[in-house]
Amino acid sequence: MLREIWIVCRKDLTIEWRARVTLVQIVPTVLLVLVVFAFAFDANPTLLGAGAGGLFWVAVLFGAVLGSKRSFDIEAEGGNLDALRLGGLAPAAILWGKATALALQSMVVGVFAAAGLLVLFSVTVEDWLLIVAAGLCGTAAFAVCGALYGAMTVGLRSADTLLPLLLIPVAAPVLLAGTRAFDVALGTSADQGWSWTALLAVVLVTYIAVGWLAAGPLLEDA
Amino acid sequence: MTGSLATRVLGAVALAAVAVMAILALWISPADEVQGDAVRLMYVHVPSIWVAYGSFVLTAFASARVLWRTRSGAGGSQGVIADRQARHWDRVAGAAAELGVIFTALTLMTGSLWGKVTWGAYWQWDARLTTSVLLFVTYLGYLALRRLPAESRSRARRSAVMALIAVVNLPIVHFSVDWWRTLHQEASLELGPGGARNYTGEMYWTLLYSWATFTMVALWIGIHRYRVLRLEELAEEAALEELLAARRAEYENAGPRSTEQESNERAEQVTSR
Amino acid sequence: MTHAASVITGYLLAATATLTYAAWVVRRGRTLGRDLGIDTTGSADDPSDRPSPP
What we know:
The complex is a heterotrimer. Chain A is mainly alpha-helical. Chain A has one domain. Chain A contains 8 helices and no strands. The two termini of chain B are about 35 Å apart. Chain B has one domain (about 5-245). By secondary structure, chain B is mostly helical. Chain B contains 7 helices and no strands. By secondary structure, chain C is mostly helical. Helices cover about 65% and strands about 0% of the residues of chain C. Chain C is built from 1 helix and no strands. The interface of B and C includes residues 1, 81, 88, 114 and 232 of B.
């Protein structure tokens, strides 16, 4: 099973390495979101600093939506998904392979977004460990959701416009908990950052369990 | 054309119940000491969300049945029966989700009107309100997913998966939003939508009666919607048959040809698709 | 807005929304039924839907 997951994940990462869609299109879009928010708040440093934690997660969520769309676009073309299935890969292996690749790509996006915040919004980090822990759990949760909903809408007409509508409400708890954890780590709020990170971990585990059950019905005869 | 004796009786009873409910809720039940007449919005607001919750539970139950019925391995005559039952539960899920969305929308609308007169604002980032609006958007997405053209079996399965994810996600959303708000908002709102107040006597009975009325109305619409969904499927099948018949006629008119020619053409059609 | 006005607005909104949806469902059923030549899907419902005896 692990080997199969690795095969799918490596395949996706190789495609990404050749096409560089994440690096050349998604990362710039995410950075653009940060710049646009600065316009919305009239480049007010106090406001931007206070909202930096939330901005990070909104930007990464947009990146994850684009990423999961892209991740299943490459499968819809030319019946790749059928080929993978016929090649003997289990539905769960396909889902987890894609989710893993998506998580790695989202983490890259997250690193760029965080760097953008440090530079553009001049925030200071008080607790790096919390940032890393919450960041890892949150982006992984986005990736699992994205892979699930990507698999759900793969090959459908107007899936491009539907995916954000499906994905954003489900990702709302991650957005919320991630924001609170980051606000603590950036020193803009005195909340229980680690409790929120624990909530992120619980959400991640729940989504993984759901994905485990859903992989079969979603990908068996898709 | 979707009526039957049973639904006609149900519809008549529901209509009469609505009339009685209007009298009970607007005249007979007393005004609240604190909120005055605004409390009467409760008789629409609260039953709406109860009916919506009930519909979403039914959607989840029906979706579980769909997945149970379409799991692989059922073949032959067993498979045919399973397929029919899966289609049945898929229609139940679709009709119920639509009702749920309508009644959630009603809850949000009446709630914000109620909020305006009791809190002074249409919207508060209260835990319940935020959860309700996310619930609403989630099921809007579910309905959008159902609308997309796809092969009926795989559409039924993916919508079923989505409905079950939505249900699993609901407690997470509720818990996180609750935690988010209670940490930042000291004073909880005692009055108004979702306020923790106990209503007794005539108010209590009017509320229960309104709930029964709303359930009947929802049931009536839901049964009709189920039948319309069935008709939609039949219409789709009929359109497909017609298309096939036209294709066949076209083929026969062209006269007898060599099998090689035919297979070439078929291959062309397949590749051009 | 006064209390009475908001109550009336709320009730009217609820009634309009429900009636509009119900009317849409019934009318759609009529149109589809006419197109398909089906008189009623009523109490007998669709026989094709019932699991046939094995």
